[in-house]
Write a structure and sequence with these properties.
Belongs to the bacterial flagellin family. Its main location: secreted. GO terms for molecular function: structural molecule activity. Flagellin is the subunit protein which polymerizes to form the filaments of bacterial flagella. This is Flagellin. By secondary structure, the protein is mainly alpha-helical. It folds into 2 domains: 208 residues, f41 fragment of flagellin, N-terminal domain (Up-down Bundle); 35 residues. The protein is built from 8 helices and 4 strands, in the order αααββββααααα. A two-stranded antiparallel ribbon has the order 1-2. Helix 3 packs antiparallel against helix 5. The longest helix is centred in the N-terminal third of the chain and has 57 residues. It starts with a helix and ends with a helix.
Length: 306
């Protein structure tokens, strides 16, 4: 096959355009700081970057969920700890009344204190973070009224912290303070001190027993108060276990995020030293080719027509 001057010119032009395109790509990478600016630059790596970004975005969402869940559980833990302290006072009052003399002054003082303690427990049961009540389940209003009646739900509000892995961010107020929904019966006699405990009902029964000088009722109240304290302690331990799980998952996700971001950066971030050398080489080669082509291809219009 005869190589005509026109064919030589076309080949030279093609090579010059290819060299110019290579320089343009390198300059675009320098300007953007990215190795891949459009999928056609490297389809395989582009797909890898999309997969990595999807995993990074999911990790950020899980981290956000963990932060929110941690806040709710921290507030819940604080409320439970306060409840535990209040129940220790209930136990002390009941113990004092069952073992001491019951003169009108001590009876009045005990009843007043127990009434106040019940009100404080109800206040703790209505603890909220923003518009979310931590003992109300899915209800977005105070779960307890002034008398201690529960109107929330027993549902656990779960937050996803990893694919297929959830953590509950709340405790059922009905189960915690009333022993269940409907409320459990207040233990007496052989059932005193058994679980589940209707904590608010126990305080009401203890007030009645103290007012009526019912020694057996007060003794039952001592047992029920001890069981109530244990019921709250169990809830505290359960919440603490969830908090530890969140902390462990947060650490694991953080490590995974760092790894994924490093891999993403290795693929996508420009090595400016390497790009600088390549750009200098390509530019030098292009200018040399352009000069050589200009000297060797002294073509006229007639040459392109052959």
């Amino acid at each position: 096959m005869r190589v005509t001057p026109g064919m030589t010119a076309e080949n030279a032009l093609y090579n010059l355009q290819k060299g110019r395109s290579s320089i343009d790509t390198l300059q675009e990478q320098v300007a953007s700081g990215l190795n891949i600016n459009k999928p056609s630059d490297d389809p395989l790596s582009s797909r890898q970057l999309l997969d990595l970004q999807e995993q990074i975005n999911a990790g950020e969402q899980y981290s956000s969920n963990i932060t929110k869940a941690g806040l709710l559980l921290n507030v819940t833990s604080t409320a439970l700890t306060s409840m535990s302290g209040l129940l220790q006072q209930v136990k002390k009052i009941a113990g004092d009344m069952v073992s001491g003399t019951q003169d009108p002054t001590s009876v009045s003082g005990a009843v007043t204190n127990l009434t106040q303690l019940k009100s404080q427990l109800i206040d703790m049961g209505n603890t909220r973070v923003g518009d979310q009540y931590v003992f109300a389940g899915f209800k977005n209003s105070p779960p307890f009224d002034n008398l201690g009646n529960f109107s929330g739900t027993d549902d656990l509000v779960n937050v996803e912290i990893a694919p297929g892995s959830n953590v509950a961010t709340n405790v059922s107020g009905g189960k915690l303070l009333l022993g269940g929904t409907p409320p459990a019966a207040v233990g007496s006699g052989a059932t005193a001190g058994t679980s589940p405990v209707n904590i608010l009902g126990t305080i009401d029964a203890l007030i009645l027993a103290i007012n009526g000088n019912n020694k057996a009722g007060i003794a039952d109240g001592v047992k029920n108060a001890a069981a109530a304290a244990q019921q709250v302690s169990t809830a505290i331990s359960d919440v603490a276990g969830r908090q530890v799980r969140l902390d462990n998952m947060k650490t694991m996700i953080g490590n995974n995020q760092n790894t994924l971001k490093n891999i993403y950066g290795d693929i996508q971030n420009v090595d400016y030293a390497k790009i600088g050398v390549l750009l200098s080489q390509k530019t030098t080669a292009f200018n040399a080719a352009l000069s050589a082509t200009a000297k060797l291809s002294q073509l006229s219009l007639l040459d392109y027509m052959k």
